[in-house]
Amino acid sequence: MLAFIARRLLQSVIVMLVVAFIAFLVFRYVGDPLANLLSQDATMADYEQARERLGLNQPFYIQFFNFVINALQGQFGVSYRLQQPVSQLILERLPATIELAVASSIIALVFGVMLGIYTALRQRAFSTGVIMTLSLIGVSLPTFLIGIGLIYVFAVELKWLPSFGRGDVVQIGWWRTGLLTQSGLRSLILPAITLSLFQLTLIMRLVRAEMLEVMRTDYIRFAKARGLSKRAINFGHALKNTMVPVITITGLQLGSVIAFAIITETVFQWPGVGSLFVNSVAAVDVPVMAAYLVFVALVFVIINLVVDILYFIVDPRLRDGARSGR
Amino acid sequence: MHTSLTRIAAALVASTMLAGVANAETIRWARSSDALTLDPHSQNQGNTHTLAHHIYETLLERDNDGNLQPRLATEWALKEGDDTVWVFKLREGVKFHNGNDFTAEDVVYSIERAKSEFSNMRQLHAEVESVTAVDDYTVEFQMEGPSLIYPNNLTNTFIMDKTWSDENDLATVQDFASGATNHAVLNTNGTGPYTLESREVDVRTVLALNEGWWGETPAVTEIHYLTIADAQTRISALLSGEVDIVQDVPPQDIQRLSNTEGFKIETGPENRFIHFGYKFGDEPLASSNITDSNPFNNPLVREAMELVLDRDAIQQVVMRGQSIPTGIPNPPFVAGWTEELDAYPAPDVERARELMAEAGYPDGFSVTLDTPNNRYINDEAISTAYVGMLGQIGINVTLASRPVAEHSPLILANQSDFYLLGWGVPTFDSAYVFNDLVHTKTDELGTYNVGLYSNPELDEKIVSLNVESDQATRDATVAEIWEVVKADRVLLPVHNQVLAYAMREGVTLPVQPENQPHMTSVTFD
Q1: What is the pTM of this model?
Q2: In the record, which residues are listed under signal peptide (chain B) (predicted)?
Q3: Minimal CA separation from B21 to chain A, in Å
Q4: In chain A, what residues touch B248 (CB-CB under 8 Å)?
């Protein structure tokens, strides 16, 4: 077991190094940070000097090497754009992104499972057709359109909910939460719905397919033959057996929701790590971009590691393989 | 332009009349990106200065017509008998937010800090040799030579409290290359009308009225300064009543907002012109099919290019009326601007074709036009429109569109044959344009003269402007330089940008030509 985890950890480190390396390879094409750093009246001499100081005249692999050395010491540098330590910037914004990601995952899970069961059990109902068609639209409409649409209806026309930002926040330790104030909760609704729609339809279709599959199996038929109540069959036996893949998918999706809430965060001016990244790209803020991409890789690596370990515990064959000391 | 100027004037009159009587009011003010830092000397950038002007103050400031006005300095003049020394009389009885008195040593400290190595303000003070406090309320600036226009350079250089700065170890400006961060990035102590209550970078900054401010009490007593990057969301926030003023309004929303009940738009000219530039010299162009000569170097070709540039069409179609076409790369506020220079020829495609034939390019030529696509209002659309116009005389243009972070380094490396660029003139003096766009490119001058125009005779005159001590002679030289720049078509100006602020009915924020509005100028109906 320990050897297995150690091996996976080593692989994870390599993944993160590769991500950082590719990031630095790509940064050269994003533009020149000096275009934003220096004022309009800076002289060519100023440019030379600044390039020298920032080490921008060095080849990218040297810049990458320096980044790795500093990152190993926990130093991610100072943002070019905001002049604050990068790790602090990311930590400050992380709670906003996590709260949004978790809220949207809960919405997706609850409604996705409910609608999935409903459409599986009432296969031929008219309402099922409507839900399935709507879910197709939900999958194919781009997030920013959904966001702008929701803003238009619920903020501009009805004036029920705020159109941007996170409302009032409360500081608990280093965690800045919007969940404890009314305006914070109201602000969460639209972005969470926007971010959840894609996952919601995914989960719904998954649950429906699994349910249909399970409903055809023998033990459900025997359960029916035994005369168990519909309720016990549907929820006690069928649903239980569909949940394993659903939980796996939702868990893995949480990673991509945290990492790629970028569009939703931009449309709603949600102050999370995604909007920080977008602003940093526009300003060619290399320290922030690099740290963010490594952070995203870390999120995926951790989630996959946890999933692997869970499989390891669940599946005896993996365990035996490890014991035989491959 | 005339109507907007009268409106500004009217607003100014209204503001002085209303200031005393208005009630306590909070303004929620949104724009597309936040100030980069609160350190007043670190960045020379509009958004950063705009916020700083509410907390810190400068010796002099610009009013909404672009005129120089006293602020922390009450009088300024050249020292009698020595035209290399500027003497500033300071306002008495001014206090910093922490209660410290504002005196001459704060000015000396701040100018020296603005001149220091990591300050982006240092070019504006490059000609200051030393600053000395004569007494508590008099400061002398020893210049390297006569510098008639130096006071123009002080309108964005903020004064910090020396005692507070020393306590917090602020003698050097934040160096973006170092790992350390500076106390002044997030903390302030100015003399300005508002104090910093709280700041969440990229989210919201709250400012409260400084009760002890020396000026007339402004109508706005609390400011919520918000960043909303997405244009649609920004306008939605105004429409839903969550903000009162939106600064960066996309041109396509201007008409709609002014027709929406409960909202209005204030417009006015910005101190920024948009121009095309091209490569001079005999060297053939890298991106052209003509490999034995440089067509742009031929004055006839440049004339033909101006004759097909339909500035009025660009104004009406591309800018939806929101621009002021111009024939000179110099905004109308700037000293040296004249109506004659501003005039531009009517488009004449026939004549342009003749000129092309005369120049030896009857079939035209091909070239690449580099344009930014996220820096100026409709920058890429302006370029696209001009590409079509040039096609009429056989100039076959490939458009290369890039974000400004890629466009700037490309043109700065002189790698563009043909480009679009915008330019603001923060000193409100022609020399600023000449120094950076017209003077031969060197390590110190002509940084953005990336078409590599070079005219030694003009260079001499340009350098002389910086040391000329007689105003009349200087004005004459400026006029002479403009004559040559216009005749040679060193640059091909298109228009001056127009600023538009959107706000709810009942609030008025006049447009400030540098796009640095002061919430002290807000009035309520």
Answers
A1: 0.86
A2: 1-24
A3: 32
A4: none
Please check whether residue B57 is in contact with residue B189, taking contact to mean a CB–CB distance below 8 angstroms.
Answer: no
Q: How far apart are CA B73 and CA B52, in angstroms?
A: 18
What percent of chain A lies above the pLDDT cut of 90? 25
Those residues whose C-beta lies under 8 Å from the C-beta of residue B207, and which sit 6 or more positions away, are: B54, B55, B194, B195, B196, B197, B222, B223, B225
* Domain architecture of chain B: domains with CATH: 52-177 (3.90.76.10), 270-498 (3.10.105.10)
Question: CB neighbours of A47 closer than 8 A, spacing ≥ 6?
Answer: A34, A38, B412, B447
User: Cβ contact (<8 Å) for B230 and A266?
Assistant: yes
Rounded Cα gap, residues A62 and A78, in angstroms: 18
Name every residue whose Cβ is closer than 8 Å to that of residue B370 and which is 6 or more positions away in sequence.
B400, B402, B407, B410, B411, B416, B418, B419, B420
Selection from B140, B127, B153, B129 nearest residue B467 by Cα: B127
Q: Which domain holds residue A115?
A: 92-274
Residue B125 token pair: 């003070």
Question: How far is B150 from A55, CA to CA, in rounded Å?
Answer: 34
CB A95 within 8 A of CB A184: no
Q: Return d(Cα B476, Cα A10) in angstroms, integer.
A: 73
Q: Does any domain span residue A235?
A: yes
Residue A64 lies in a domain: no
- B165/B110 Cα distance (integer angstroms): 10
pLDDT tens per residue, range B158-215:
999 999 999 999 988 877 666 667 899 899 999 999 999 999 988 999 999 999 999 9
Reading the block at residue A168, the tokens are 């009032």
Q: Which of chain B's residues have a Cβ under 8 Å away from the Cβ of A37?
A: 120, 176
Positive or negative, the CA dihedral A199, A205, A209, A215 is positive
Look at strands B128-135 and B73-79 and give their pairing.
Answer: unpaired
Residues in chain A: 326
DSSP class of residue A79 equals -
Taking residue B499's Cβ as centre, other Cβ atoms within 10 Å add up to 23
pLDDT at B21 over 50: no
Residue B197 exposure: Cα atoms within 13 Å on the Cβ side: 14
For A258-280, the pLDDT digits (tens) are 877 889 999 999 999 999 998 89
The ipTM estimated for the assembled molecules is 0.83
Report the number of distinct structural domains present in chain A: 1
